[in-house]
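Exercise 3.2. Students should predict the tertiary structure of the chain below and write it as structure tokens, then compare their answer with the key that follows.

Predict this chain's 3D structure.
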Amino acid sequence: MVYLAEAGKWEDLLDSAVCKDGKFTLNYKQIGFEPFKAIVMYLDSNGRKQSFFVLNQIQIDEDGQNHANDAFMLDYGLTRLEYQEDKKSGAGQSLNSPIQVKIDAGREEALFQKYEYKNLGYIPKTGGARQKRFEALKDVIDDHSFSYYLLGNVFKSKLQYSKAELVALLDYFDEDVQQSKLAGRLKDHIASMLDVGESSRPLALESSLGIIKHNINRFADVNMLVFWASWCGPCRLEIPQLKQIHQTFKDKGFYMASISLDDNRSNWNTALSQEQMSWDQYILNQKEKDAIKAEYAFESIPLVVFTNKEGKSLGRFSGYSPAHIEEYIKVIEANLNK
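Answer key:
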């Protein structure tokens, strides 16, 4: 048996087929199909999941080295995968090691092979090379405005861009691409982004008691928002520091809230029971999660953001460090004194 899945989502099988005499045909049909990164999987003789590794002929031709990727761009029409024998030995490949295949596919795959190793879409937030890379990306999109692959690269690096830059890039794509599901998510992200100097919007979230509380980021003179999740090891390491902060400042015009990005509410509730955090606890649904990640411009946690009563940022700290507690205290004391 062979199986079709979206890259990175091995458990969500989209199609399957029997391989007979070394041949198989997958027929994947979907209303409103949009090209995406796919993988073809099988079970090796030990029952472990493996995926075909697709040779990147463009990169091979450039440097003569062996380049292969388990993902490829599934495009409209026919995609053909063909077994590739080991050219050095002339022998076949082991079933228990990744099987390499040649690919004959559409124009999205050609872009994937050309740019996947070149970090296209990423631009530094500052520095002299930033504008040059941004203009080069616009030229590539302008030349291939049909490409869902290029839109995916922009989406993946969306936090590197300003709101105006994302609007400009989106405008270079064809109308069909602009109306895609991924473009819709990018538009939602743009709508949630803050302009330079703009204060955060009033935040209303569901608490661990099932109550919606408003103005969480504007509740006190100093509001400390802690973005975390039960599965995040560094987030859990920081909790003793947070307890110390809360105990020290809780009655002095200071408000603390932990905001969970957990997908599984049961895991969140278990963590709350284990950690016994005495300040307000909130959880985000998926729509809130996307909007808040855009507004507060982050992907990784833990993240701590301080705001005042107007929603203006007083400071932010990404990642875990034992030294952060001293920085937290400095921010709190400086702004409580004001």
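Discussion points: The two ends are 68 Å apart (CA to CA). The longest strand covers residues 36-43.
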